[in-house]
Every structure is written in structure tokens, then in C-alpha cells.
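User: Please fill in residues for this 127-position structure.
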């Protein structure tokens, strides 16, 4: 649900001494966190250009898991954890609670040549 925290846990049994672990937000092809075990460096890049992760990322130094706090629709998408040994993908969906009778705005990020088709229960309602 929007506003909740979510942990993306790769279930790493242990991090190797030479591990470099990168978390990417694939939807925007952006590195958002990195662990360099050998250098003992744990970094979150929460100031990515559009600011969607600002003050929301927590990196677990023992498990390699990434927590996103206070999620919004902007955090929905595909995530990747990559080391030289493994690659793990996560898909995050964020639900919004709406009361009957409330107005809702559905926003999308469009490029100049994009075509958007809105559907409700498999019925096209707008193009």
C-alpha cells in the first residue's frame, strides 16, 4: 500500500569478500545503491535526478537487502540486484486506497512518441 515500507531481500546467504553489489531501478535504468565489501563501503544514491528516492532508501549491510520507506506510485517498477555471481529481479507494485466517490488522477510519464491506452477490466476507456 502507498505509504508502507517494503524490503527487497535477495536472500544472500553471505557476501563474499570481493563482492560488489549494485541495486538498480530498472524502470529508469538508475543505480540506487551499492555495496563494496572489500572497501567496506555501503552507499545509497537517493538523490537520483527526479528525487523519487530522497530520504527513502535503507541498505542492510549484512543481508544486502534494500528497504524503500514511505512508498508512492513513483516507486512501482522493476528492480535488479547484481553481483558478479548472481542477478535477482524484483517487481514492485504499489496500491492506492480509494474511497468510493473520491476523484482519482492516474498519471503516466510519457515521451513524445508514446501511445497510451487506458483500460478498465480489459475494456479500452481512453487512448
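Assistant: Residues filled in for all 127 positions:
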Amino acid at each position: 500500500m502507498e505509504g508502507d515500507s517494503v524490503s527487497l531481500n535477495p536472500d544472500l546467504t553471505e557476501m563474499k569478500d570481493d563482492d560488489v553489489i549494485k541495486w538498480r531501478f530498472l524502470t529508469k535504468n538508475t543505480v540506487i545503491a551499492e555495496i563494496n565489501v572489500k572497501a567496506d563501503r555501503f552507499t545509497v544514491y537517493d538523490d537520483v535526478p527526479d528525487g523519487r528516492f530522497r530520504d527513502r532508501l535503507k541498505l542492510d549491510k549484512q543481508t544486502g537487502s534494500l528497504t524503500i520507506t514511505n512508498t508512492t506510485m513513483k516507486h512501482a517498477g522493476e528492480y535488479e540486484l547484481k553481483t558478479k555471481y548472481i542477478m535477482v529481479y524484483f517487481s514492485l507494485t504499489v496500491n492506492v486506497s480509494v474511497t468510493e466517490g473520491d476523484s482519482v488522477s492516474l498519471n503516466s510519464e510519457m515521451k513524445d512518441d508514446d501511445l497510451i491506452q487506458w483500460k478498465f477490466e480489459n475494456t479500452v476507456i481512453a487512448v
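For context: The CA atoms of residues 48 and 110 lie 19 Å apart.
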